[in-house]
């Protein structure tokens, strides 16, 4: 292991690894160090758990190790292709079905794309996510960053859920 890889590994263990594990990945490690200071990381378990916080991971590593110029995640598409015109809704639903819905199914939840126009994707949270007190956190810190990373045509995300009508939220407002 190179000196730079060792320093980055120490920074990962010190301040980043607990966040990665809390998000559902078993761990994260350095797999390559470029001469230009580009570090490539690999997540054990689900890269989808790391992708939404990759920007924060990079900022922390670059602050701790100034020789690092960029951080990449192995397995993540470095240059996602925009969906075909008019297919943003379908592309967003495919990402949700592959990377979000399997995770939130444990909370009896499901996310459906209602519409997609001009880069804005409207979603509806269903099941245990409808009325959940952590729904906004799930959307802003999980779903939106993932969709923006996977689909460069996504500008933002809006929630079209009628949360007041939720009959069985996973985390009810009383549990806050």
Describe this structure in a few short sentences.
The chain has 176 residues and is α/β, with parallel strands linked by helices.
Distance between the termini: 45 Å
Tally of separate helices: 5
Q: What is the H level of CATH, i.e. the homologous superfamily of the largest domain? A: Fe-S cluster assembly (FSCA)
CATH class of the largest domain: Alpha Beta
Beta-strand level of the residues, as a percent range?
A: 15-25%
> Can you count the beta strands?
6
Radius of gyration: 18 Å
Order of helices and strands: HEEHHEHEEHE
Helix content: 25-40%
CATH topology of the largest domain: GMP Synthetase, Chain A, domain 3
CATH architecture of the largest domain: 2-Layer Sandwich
Number of self-contained structural domains: 2
Largest sheet geometry: 3 strands, mixed
Give, in spatial order, the strands making up the sheet with the most strands: 1-2-3
Structural class: alpha/beta
């Amino acid at each position: 292991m190179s000196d730079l890889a060792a320093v980055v590994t120490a920074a990962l263990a010190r301040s980043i690894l607990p966040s990665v594990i809390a998000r559902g990945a078993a761990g994260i490690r350095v797999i390559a160090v470029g001469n230009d200071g580009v570090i490539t990381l690999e997540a054990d378990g689900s890269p989808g758990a790391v992708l939404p916080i990759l920007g924060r991971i990079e900022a922390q590593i670059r602050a701790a190790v100034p020789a690092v110029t960029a951080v990449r995640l192995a397995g993540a598409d470095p240059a996602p292709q925009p969906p075909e015109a008019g297919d943003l809704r379908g592309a967003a639903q495919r990402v949700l079905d592959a990377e979000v819905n399997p995770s939130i199914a444990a909370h009896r939840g499901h996310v459906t794309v209602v519409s997609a126009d001009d880069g804005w994707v409207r979603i509806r949270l269903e099941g245990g996510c409808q009325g959940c007190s952590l729904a906004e956190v799930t959307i802003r810190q999980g779903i939106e960053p993932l969709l923006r990373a996977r689909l460069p045509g996504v500008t933002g995300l809006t929630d079209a859920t009628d949360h007041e009508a939720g009959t069985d939220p996973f985390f009810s407002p009383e549990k806050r």
